[in-house]
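It is worth pausing here to work through a concrete case rather than discussing structure prediction in the abstract. The textbook approach is simple: state the sequence, then state the predicted structure, then interpret. We follow exactly that order.
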Amino acid sequence: MDDSREDRLGLGTSVVDGAVLERAARRFGEQGIVLPTFSQLAEPQRIPPAALAALASVGRDDADARNLWRVHWHNEADERGLRQVPQYVVLPPEFSGVASPILVAFGDTFPMIGAHKVLAAYACLVPRLVTGAFDPTAQRAVWPSTGNYARGGVAISRIMGCRGVAVLPENMSRERFEWLERWVTDPADIVATPGSESNVKEIYDACAELAAEPRNVIFNQFSEFSNHAGHYAVTGPALERIFNDYAAAEPGLRLAAFVAASGSSGTLGAGDYLKERHGARIAAVEALECPTMLYNGFGEHNIQGIGDKHIPFVHNVMNTDAAVAISDAATDGLFLAFGHEGGRRLLTERGVPAGVVGSLHHFGLSSICNVLAAIKCARAAGLGADDVIVTVATDGAALYESERTRLAGSRFAGSFEASAAAGQIDEHLAGADTSHVQLLDDVGRSRIFNLGYFTWVEQQGVSLEDFEARREPAFWDRLHAMVPAWDAMIDEFNARSGATIAD
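Step two, the predicted structure:
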């Protein structure tokens, strides 16, 4: 990758504008904001003791720059201290119906937004900030998303002393918009685009209009490679730590697969890390109602958090081993069943441990999607008891409470009782099969990779050279190697700002 391509793709590791960098550093110095490095977020035990001590007086949901030190997977549930191993649950055969243990990391422990997308937002903003490519004193950070990334971007922008703009579909959950209304500095900074989860093109169109103003900088998670790199550097090691913790008591286990919904494909970057270190297969998941990877399809769905109808630019498709589709009928139905006393009672009667049943509030719609895809992958690949699957619960049920009444009305004629909960568990959990799973060979990977041409080259104006560069492993190796350089620039930025950690 030559220097000119690095500039075009936002992957620079040198200063773009010294004057902008100086203004940004001065702003952070005045506000006392110290930036954590990616290595500190990957291993929070490396966070300075003074920063950890300062968190004692800061709530996890406060609009406070000290919460940057919580943008990782190791937060305690009670907001105090760090966990050596991130919070996770082991889904046993009594729950999943497959022999393979499924380990699920909890994303709702992240600060401010209760979802791991705040990490993606930080990862996208910081490289631009420390290279002088974004001016927090004069420019607005625009965050296109189907929900959580926009909230994460607004949160990161606000606590970094700059203005953030959320761009998201108008039909996302009420909780997302209520949160945004509390956090933006101006109601005009919430841009609601037509449609719902599948309407990503409409988000891009709105961003194109905003980009016409020089003060607006678009941080498009679907094409910001630091989204992938941040999850490779931070989420990958966190999930490895979870696997090592579980496997310590049972020698001989192997990390067989990592499963995650595509969405922006940033989280799939953790799969690159786990594949390098453990040989884990990588499974990318989408909605059956909009099966772009599997069937070149289109449509609408309600698995909020996994926008689609295109292949994200930051998806390392040629390193992906399986494509899986999950129906929103399954995620909607199980979301209602897991939140219903009758559904939880049925799981308990079937031998599911109390700790697993008690953890179901950590599962939002896309989290359930990931779990179902993990079950399907285990069946399709013939995985056994020694084959561990790792996935993530991107956010929790709290973000979808307003959806319960709507879903009960639209899918169950307004009444969702214990019998309905049992029916959904039998149909969608116990009944999860190998349908709509494709184990990919090079032909399958190339087919999915080539689909991205129509979005990125024809619609978004990416050069064919830059599009094709992503086909080769060397491109992604070079990207992963940039993280230490960004860490060094973060350290230099902190020194330039002169900010110190305040208690």
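Step three, interpretation. The CA atoms of residues 153 and 295 lie 32 Å apart. The mean pLDDT is 92.
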